[in-house]
Amino acid sequence: MGIALVKIKIMPESPASNLRDIESKARDIIEKNSGLITGFAEEPIAFGLKALFVSFEWPEERELEDLESELGQISEVKSAEVSDIRRAIG
């Protein structure tokens, strides 16, 4: 099988949520599940709330639902959902 390039949007519970802590925990979870992080980005949503986007390489044959669920259980995280997935070429 191949490699998928995945982007997951992680929504914190509030503007006061510690994004660095969430990022660190997300990195640990993704790497523990055989993902290779390619980057993190923040995107303003509204009223000081920022979403955290994590991009990573993921084995195509593996499902993402369990990973989404595990990321959604990080403290101070309201939700985690796949926002983009593409097959890597090359």
What does this structure look like?
The two termini are 13 Å apart. The relative contact order is 0.36. The longest helix has 14 residues, at 19-32. The chain contains two helices and four strands, in the order βαββαβ. A hairpin with a 2-residue loop joins strand 2 (36-46) and strand 3 (49-59). Helix content is 24%, strand content 48%. A four-stranded antiparallel beta sheet has the order 2-3-1-4, with helices on one face. It is an alpha+beta fold.
Helices and strands in order:
Blueprint: E1 3-12, H1 19-32, E2 36-46, E3 49-59, H2 65-72, E4 77-87
Antiparallel strand pairs: 1-3, 1-4, 2-3
Q: What can be said about this structure in brief?
A:
The protein is an alpha+beta fold and 90 residues long. The relative contact order is 0.36.
Query: Could you tell me the radius of gyration in angstroms?
Result: 13 Å
Which outline best applies?
globular
Report the sheet-strand fraction: over 45%
Query: How many runs of DSSP E, i.e. beta strands?
Result: 4
What is the H/E order? EHEEHE
* Second rung of CATH, namely the architecture: 2-Layer Sandwich
Main features:
90 residues, alpha+beta, Alpha-Beta Plaits, globular
